[in-house]
Amino acid sequence: xxxxxxxxxxxxxxxxxxxxxxxxxxxxxxxxxxxxxxxxxxxxxxxxxxxxxxxxxxxxxxxxxxxxxxxxxxxxxxxxxxxxxxxxxxxxxxxxxxxxxxxxxxxxxxxxxxxxxxxxxxxxxxxxxxxxxxxxxxxxxxxxxxxxxxxxxxxxxxxxxxxxxxxxxxxxxxxxxxxxxxxxxxxxxxxxxxxxxxxxxxxxxxxxxxxxxxxxxxxxxxxxxxxxxxxxxxxxxxxxxxxxxxxxxxxxxxxxxxxxxxxxxxxxxxxxxxxxxxxxxxxxxxxxxxxxxxxxxxxxxxxxxxxxxxxxxxxxxxxxxxxxxxxxxxxxxxxxxxxxxxxxxxxxxxxxxxxxxxxxxxxxxxxxxxxxxxxxxxxxxxxxxxxxxxxxxxxxxxxxxxxxxxxxxxxxxxxxxxxxxxxxxxxxxxxxxxxxxxxxxxxxxxxxxxxxxxxxxxxxxxxxxxxxxxxxxxxxxxxxxxxxxxxxxxxxxxxxxxxxxxxxxxxxxxxxxxxxxxxxxxxxxxxxxxxxxxxxxxxxxxxxxxxxxxxxxxxxxxxxxxxxxxxxxxxxxxxxxxxxxxxxxxxxxxxxxxxxxxxxxxxxxxxxxxxxxxxxxxxxxxxxxxxxxxxxxxxxx
Length: 637
Ligand code: GLU
Ligand code: MG
Description:
Helix content: 25-40%
Distance between the termini: 30 Å
Structural class: alpha+beta
Bound molecules: glutamic acid, magnesium ion
């Protein structure tokens, strides 16, 4: 999750003293990059996925599943066996926030041909096998978004007690610092977010009210006033960055052919974020309780919210410069393409000086305000050895601010002196249990970018409506019951869509008739006479493409999964997990995930991931057989 510098991390007080320096040089670094590569075009489509994994240990005798805190060693072994030996190794591994997490990507980006879609799942299988082969007996590599008993007593191997006193990173009542990755970036981020904020982070997730759930549901923390005050009735209270950043997700990054194509895709995909997030929902449990939400988003958002009371509007501004309406981890605040401009209806706080400077340097209003908005944030980590940099050839200060703005979409300038092009990253998806599902979601999103560009589709709606959609998307069963603002006529494009806008969009006022509330089923599968549906559009695109039979078969299976999840014929992982728990003999209809329930659930998830259990409610039936007949190399052991 971002820039990994080596060296001696500075305290928050010291980092704060250098904040203006980091911002000033970050902007200089951005300008160097921008001027060097702004005209770059004809880069080809390349893309890649990122899957985050958890290491889980099963104690079959005592019916316990716990997270294993040895991600650093596994990572070291994976890199040693892989990328360090062979630059063409098919997988790449990176650290993640939890010391029980690792992140895997394909060794090389995928290219623009259709047949690449047929290699994604094999690569994900390779990753799963490669990392699994390094684990001990009774340990497994799991792709689950939130560990249901994260923060419960004894949830780690080895066992550590949290230390809720000043001096460490989290000061959490529940989450021991040993569960944070040992690289100093992660604990420094944790401590500095807390110090900048002036108090521990506060996460309150509504509890699911079952038959026997105490009402009101109130937790008391007799030893801790801060927690007692922060914990809301009928909510699951959490107090550490690990409860958010210790969750796993599935991301996709695309290289666009030019900066304007990247800006166009950034905007279009931003509207899709809530829809695909709801479709991928898989995190209903937190700190040993059943919650009333299905997605991790708000939890992570609160877990890294470094805003002071002044910035959050709870006290008059005195020491800080701005009121800031969102956490650093949140949805985007402005569109970047010309077509998006008229839909930018969210108040955008920006660093005025930086904005003016960027304009003076020839950067247009939309890009300037985007960067000046990211740069209202302070750097959260700084390494003593990395304060003075060569702005023409390094970008660490720019990346420092950029990579701690964790938004639904990320617009990524090329690194200095590289042959990488302008990229955008799609970040809202929750990770799925199986490689098949993860491939399906990734391929769906990548194909969507192809049809957006080929058919000049236009999904833009006022950004405030996208924000409303983000809220709906996280609710329990949003995929079945949520209504989302979506553009009615998405086929208006007709002129050169990347650099200009179609005539239909040239009005200055937003026509409220342009969008309406739709279900995810309508958005994805279409509705006669009302909306064409994204899957039918993808299918018609595929009909016009040269695709080999095997690839077509895989893609159709992927799209079938998405289609059935959207219609409700198949469950999301969140729904399936809820049903699993509610039927478990140890469950008392009291919203409590006991050790035994946690164990059974994760063991079943592990069996599904390794194709030892079928789970048709989640995956359907018949998809795999069609795909895997005749494909022996890809089968898992
Ligand atoms: N794990 C985080 C999430 O679930 C993302 C961290 C990253 O940006 O890599 O969204
Ligand atoms: Mg990551």
